[in-house]
Design brief:
about 300 residues; alpha+beta; Pemi-like Protein 1, Chain: D; de novo design (two linked rop proteins); four-stranded mixed beta sheet; two-stranded antiparallel sheet; 9 helices; about 60% helix
């Protein structure tokens, strides 16, 4: 963080100096206009015409790397808005199937060229046209269905939709990164969106796991009723959190944060079912969902 002195200019104005590297980074010259945007947390200064976020190409070698390492590098390039990604190496032939499966989960990336030693993917989607809120609403809609179907033990259906949640979360992270680089929106709100979409991805994963555990705990009707009751309470907490997010209702989030803490404590009382492994695992999932809901609420509270 840098500090600047406030200087009196004339009878009614004040001036501050700007960091030289920031001026150079934005290709500004004397006489250029700047835009000032006032918020509750301060004053945002931006070039009047924000330069488009330039995409850059990227490449990785697959030689001597595990599949997990390859996937991490590919996703990292995608999230940093690389316009194209070249994957190459002597071992590409034996790993090509895995590489394609990774890119299949990255919206907008399509194969442009392919050989035995190199495969090129190009981003055909304009990140500047993506709406973060629209993507989050789509993720939210899918997760609502996953949570409901998990109660019915629809494990395969929930698992398939989790892949779509992951794809949309990657896309949303990419869109947010693009906006932050271009300064097209308030940075604080974008950081909140980033955290929310991360938590949504986690909740989707726990919904998928819950479907299997609920299905496996069907033998004892008494136990299953207790689990479903706890699950319904968790779903309701999630719906409250997303409503507060859409309405920027920080007051509701203060109450919800306290509620989720209580739900977590109440769920721990269900761990007496130690002879039912699936039930115990489900309790862990419910508490993880409640923790994610609590973190979503906290982000909205921090936004004010």
């Amino acid at each position: 963080m840098e500090y600047r002195k406030l200087i009196v200019f004339g009878n009614s104005s004040y001036i501050i100096t700007l960091p030289k590297r920031w001026v150079q980074k934005n290709s500004l010259n004397p006489g250029d206009l700047l835009s000032l945007e006032e918020s509750t947390s301060g004053l945002l200064i931006m070039p009047k015409e924000v330069k488009a976020n330039k995409q850059k190409p990227g490449e990785i070698s697959v030689d001597g790397k595990s599949n997990e390492r390859i996937e991490t590098e590919i996703v990292s390039l995608y999230l940093t808005n690389c316009s194209s990604v070249d994957v190459y190496g002597k071992e590409l032939g034996e790993k090509i199937g895995f590489v394609k499966s990774v890119f299949k989960n990255l919206p907008g990336m399509e194969i442009m060229e392919e050989s035995s030693k190199r495969i090129s993917f190009k981003d055909l989607m304009d990140a500047n046209e993506l709406s973060v809120k629209t993507i989050i609403r789509r993720i939210d809609t899918i997760i609502r269905g996953m949570l409901e179907d998990a109660v019915c033990g629809e494990q395969e259906s929930v698992t398939q939709r989790d892949y779509e949640v992951n794809r949309l979360c990657f896309l949303c992270h990419r869109a947010i990164r693009n906006l932050m680089a271009g300064a097209d929106a308030a940075h604080i709100e974008l950081l909140v969106d980033w955290q929310v979409v991360t938590r949504l991805e986690e909740i989707g994963d726990y919904a998928k796991a819950s479907a299997g555990f609920l299905k496996a705990s069907h033998e004892d009707a008494r136990i299953k009723k207790k689990l479903i009751d706890a699950y319904r309470i968790t779903i309701n907490a999630y719906l409250k959190a997303m409503k507060a997010y859409y309405e920027s209702d920080s007051a509701a989030c203060h109450e919800l944060e306290l509620e989720t803490k209580r739900y977590i404590t109440d769920n721990l009382s269900l761990l007496w079912m130690k002879h039912h492994p699936a039930a115990a695992r489900l309790v862990d999932c419910l508490n993880s969902i409640n923790t994610s809901v609590k973190m979503i609420s906290r982000q909205i509270i921090n936004l004010g």
